[in-house]
Every structure is written in structure tokens, then in C-alpha cells.
Amino acid sequence: MPIESKIEPQMTLLIIEDSPTLVVAYQEYLREEDCQVTYVDTGTDALAHIQKKVPDTILLDLGLPDMNGMEILKYTNEQQLHCLVVVVTAQGSIDIAVEAMRYKAFDFIEKPFDGQRLLVTLRNALRHQRLERALEKYQEKFLERKQYYGFIGASSPMQVVYQIIENAASSKATVFITGESGTGKEVCAEAIHKRSPRANKPFVAINCAAIPKELMESEIFGHVRGAFTGAVNERQGAAFQANGGTLFLDEIGEMDLDLQSKLLRFVQTGIVQKVGGSKPEKVDVRFICATNHDPLVDVQEGRFREDLYYRLHVIPISLPPLRERENDILLIAREFLTKYTEEENKPFTGFAPEIEAILLHYDWPGNVRQLQNVIRNIVVLNDGEQVTQDMLPAPLNKELHKNRLSSIMAISQTSEQSNSIVSFPSNAETATNHFKTIRPLSQVEKEAIVQAIEFCDGNIPKAAALLDVSPSTLYRKRQSWEKKA
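^ thats the sequence. predicted structure below, dont judge the formating
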């Protein structure tokens, strides 16, 4: 029967030892340690305890009365249990040590041993587990973020973006955002501003591609009355309007080269002079800029000043395209469906399964903006409780997607029925033969994953979405297969 020692809710240590003398010694060694310690004297009791609750660390004697302790180490390794095992044995041979390490023992101690050596080893194991636990809690908390200052998305790529924003927001350093059209560059800039100490000051955005070149200088720096034809009144430019806050220059690569030199001087000095004016004025502005081009290509081709690029490119943020954001597609689509259903007073409650499959498989060249427009089009022009295939606008309703729909749904539906452990028979005869023989579960699982990845042209996040598992699961399984090969 287990003997309970000092009980603390933090870390747990299971000691598997059949010698009463050593148990007393362990109690003395661990008297001051801040952890919960449980002792068992047989392998059977140890397995029962582990199956009920996995301890953080195990101190394992190999010479147990009812089994070889190595079987317990094998069990923890095969089940991939989140615990560290320190092996203790009087049978100190190289073969046994190698075998213990092969089954991922944390350390190997020979009897008789020094008490301090044992204590240091156990402390190291418990410290390692504390760090692992702290990291897991941090990751769990971080991965709970499905929305963040205007962003919708819980995928790993977006979690990286959120963390960069968190780290960069408190600084005055310039942020350079890149990403395809429709990925949310202005949303990102606003998130940085709202998360920063400047949140209660102005956020001023200028689209450098939408304003005529001859008016851009006035738009940024302002002008005095009579500075040019039509300047009937003095005007404060965006630099003055954003004083104390944030100035966001979107599509900065479209800015005229002459104006880029004036912007460089402004970024370096913080001094602004209005068009037609003679009085330099100091302003306090945090710069954020964005482009959907590769800025280094623009520099190499002479469209963007190299000195301005390096002045602005302090903290880069690269926004991932929607097609690389795992299950965020459905998360965003459902959010937009709810929003526009309320706005338009429509009865929609969700998407038909085949529509979700199409949304996941489509590449979304226009990214979130395109998805937003598609959902709004559906809601405005249609009625019903579910979004169905006949409601899809172009290009999602093209024959390409209709022809591939049956294949997509075959993967999705079989995945749901088998909890993602499936196979994909190519025709009716194969399907019939498929169920005549029961095969190992691991083999069926591997075939399902391999075929899903092939179907998605090697895109693991898409394959994971169709199989309803995390992409990290597929990466991990592929790595384990490669090691066994």
C-alpha cells in the first residue's frame, strides 16, 4: 500500500522501492523538499498509481519483487507520459544503463549512492518539470486568444503576430508591416497603437496609394494658405494631427522618391515644415508603415530609398496569408456570418458541412478581406438557416471546386466518423475489400494522414484542418515515422 509523505500541491514524486531501509533514507533526504512524495513497493502498485495520476517525477528501483522495473520505464515511454524517470539499481552494467537511456530515463544512479547525488538529481528533475509546467501554462493561456484587438484567429502563425505586437507596443520604435493585400495590415497597426502608452492619443492612417502624388506632401505635412492653387486655407497635415500618437503610412512603397527624402528627414528629426511655410515645428509621432510588396525588392529596383528602408525597418511584422492560418478560416467565417446575420436580420445559424470543406480548401488570394466580402454577399442575397452550395458567389461556385467537393467531403466525413483515424479507398471495390480485413490501427492512421497530405499537395495545415487535428500532430507523427524508417 502507498505510504504518503509530506503533502504539497505543487510537484509530485513517486518512489518505487521495496527496501524499507531505503524508504526511510529517502524520507530523510526529502524531508525539506517542496513536493508531494508517494512510496510504493511493487511494480503492480506503481502501474496502478501511474494510471490513476501521472506523477511529475519517478524514482524507480529496477529490482522489484514482482517485475523488472525496466517494464515500468518502458510503459512510461510507450505511453509518452509527461514524467521524468530517475533509475536506481544495484545492477550497474553498461547494458542496463544504455537500455534505460534508450527508454528516455532522465538519469541513472547505481547503488550504493551518495545522498547528495540523489538529492541533486531529483531536484534537477523537479526543476525541469516546473519549467515545463510553467511553459505549458503560458502556451495554454496564449493559445486561448481567438480574438486580439480586431484580429480573429487562434492559429500558431497569428499567435506569433500577437506576441510581437505585445512586445513592440510599449516602444516608440518604428514598425514595418508586410503582408499580402487583405491580411489586416491596418488592423495590425491599430492593435499596436491600442496596446501602446499612446492609446489615448490620435491614430492617423494615410494610404499612400490612394492619394495623388502632388497632394501627398500636403497630406502628410500640411500647407499654409496660398501655398498652391486651391490652398485657400491653412491645413494641418497628418503629422500634426498624429502629434503624441501614431502615424500609419500604408502602402509606403507607392510614395514618390522625392517625398521619401523629406519623410526620411522627418523620421530622423521629428521636425515638420508645412508646404509653403518657413517655420519648422517639432512633433512627437510613432511611425508604423506597411506594404504588400517585398520592400527589399523595391529597394533593389530603385523604387524605395535604401536609407529610408533601414530607418523604418526596425521591428518587422509579417502577416501570414489566410491559406496558411490553419482553422482560422472557419473561425473568421463564422464570426462574419454571425455579424452580418444580425445586421441584415437574417436566419442563418451556420454553414453546411460541404461549405466548410470548400472554405477550408479554397486558397483565398484576397485573404480575410475576400472572405469577409464572400460572407456578406451570401447573407445579403440569400435566406436560410444554413449556407448551402447554391448560395456561393464566384469564384467559389466554379466547376473546379464542385468537381473536387466529393473528394474533400470524403476526407472530412470519414475523419469525423473515425476520429481522424481513417483510410481513403479509391473506388467501391477497394472500399469493400478494405473492410474485410482488420489492420493495425497505427497502419490505418498512417495511410489516412499520408493520403490527406498528398490530397492537399503537401500542405500540412490544410490536411490537419480536414482531419480535424492540430498541424503539430501531423508534424510529430511524420517525424516519428522517419525515425523508425
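DSSP finds 20 helices and 19 strands in the chain.
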